[in-house]
Amino acid sequence: MACVMDGNGRWAQRRSLPRTDGHRAAETTVIDIIEAARGAGVRWLTLYAFSTENWNRPDPEVEFLMGLVRRVVRKHAPLLPARGIRCRFLGAGDPRIPRELARDLDDLTTLTADNRGMTLTVAFDHGGRRDIVEAARSLILSGTPADEVTERLFAEHLPFPDTPDVDLVIRTSGEQRISNFMLWQVAYAEWVFPEVLWPDFRASDFIACLHTYRRRDRRFGGVPPRTNGERP
């Protein structure tokens, strides 16, 4: 499952605070949701932290976000091995990422590589379209004939090909957009759009979204099987 962590700026604006205060308040939610997912038995969790389009934000806000991510990573790194959580970063290839932060992301990935309790993927400097383009480029460079390209083979050239397709995406703040997020992997995901802003989103809200998902009838383009006595 995945979370699009939306609403930090609006959370701050409603309190007449700088947008950066909203990003800072989001830290508590991140830790809360990681723990809630782990407790609920979620094995794969992706958090959308920073998109390729977010580089278009004002330079002071981007600079603040880079510093905040580094502080959060360094502060909470010991939590992940203790919980058996493997952490990796989807994207994180832009040269504008500060060198010190890039090194910390690499160190955390290495530190948790052997953990198997839950895989936490942080989509940071991520763009779904870019991932698809890179996969196509990789296939071309591999010399794969066009008539041998299948969906399964294409998926093997995406970043982290062991990641299963996403079953549920939670996007907070009520906004209903995909926002270039894991476009290939969310093809048949269920989406839930709670109105609560990300800094106010808590474990109870997360569990409520899981219950909503479990009540959905997932048909993947087919039709539900008939029950006894039901007319075709």
From TrEMBL:
Keyword list, A-Z: Magnesium, Metal-binding, Transferase
Q: Which GO annotations describe the biological process of this protein?
A: polyprenol biosynthetic process
**Enzyme Commission numbers on file:** 2.5.1.-
Cofactor(s) needed, names only, are: Mg(2+)
Query: Where Mg(2+) is bound, by residue?
Result: 6, 190
Cofactor-binding details, from the entry: Binds 2 magnesium ions per subunit.
**Top EC class per UniProt?**
transferase
Q: Give the active-site positions.
A: 6, 54
User: Which Gene Ontology cellular component annotation is one that this UniProt entry carries?
Assistant: cytosol
The UniProt transmembrane annotation reads none
Identify the CDD domains for this entry: Cis_IPPS (cd00475)
Q: Where does the chain bind substrate?
A: 7-11, 19, 23, 51-53, 55, 57, 171, 177-179
Database matches in HAMAP family: ISPT (MF_01139)
Family indicated by similarity: Belongs to the UPP synthase family.
Instruction: Kindly state the subunit structure of this protein.
Output: Homodimer.
Q: This chain belongs to which protein, by name? A: Isoprenyl transferase
Source organism per UniProt: Streptomyces calidiresistens
Q: What is the lineage of its organism?
A: Bacteria, Bacillati, Actinomycetota, Actinomycetes, Kitasatosporales
Gene, per the UniProt record: uppS
